[in-house]
Every structure is written in structure tokens, then in C-alpha cells.
Amino acid sequence: MKNTIKVERARKDMTQQDLAEKVQVSRQTINSIEAGKYVPSTVLALKISKVFGVGLEEVFELEEGD
Asked: In degrees rounded to 5, what are phi and psi of residue 41?
């Protein structure tokens, strides 16, 4: 699954820690999601999208094989 979390964070001038605190996870979790090593739960994905004020599919996108 691809994501644009890093881009969205840059638009909002947010660090990984800032985002992690807003969605109540560790900074390492955000780092793993950005790196494509971890696929977030539906609830976490929705929380992240809400923080950025964009739709879920603007942040997360399925790739072939997902």
C-alpha cells in the first residue's frame, strides 16, 4: 500500500512525532507506515486522514498485489 503521509506532513509542517501524538501512536509507528513496512488499521488510517483534512484515498492507495 502506498501512502502520502510524508507529503501531507510537509504541507502541514508536522513532524512524525506531532502526527503520532495527534493519532495516539508512537513515532516509530508513523515511521513504519511511511516506509511501507506497516499497514495501519482502518481506524488509524481514518484518524490520519482526518488530521490532514483529506479523504482516506488521498493518503492511502492500494498497489497491485495488495
From this structure: -65, 165
Q: What's the average pLDDT block by block, 10 residues per block, for the chain (66 residues)?
A: 97 98 98 97 98 97 92
Q: What pTM did the predictor assign? A: 0.94
Cell (9 digits) for 10:
510537509
Taking alpha carbons only, the member of 27, 24, 15, 11 closest to residue 59 is: 11
Phi/psi for 17 (5° steps) reads -65, -40
Question: Grid coordinates representing 36?
Answer: 511501507
Residues with Cβ within 8 Å of residue 9, at least 6 apart in sequence: 15, 16, 18, 19
Looking at residue 58, its pLDDT comes to: 97
The amino acid at residue 33 is I
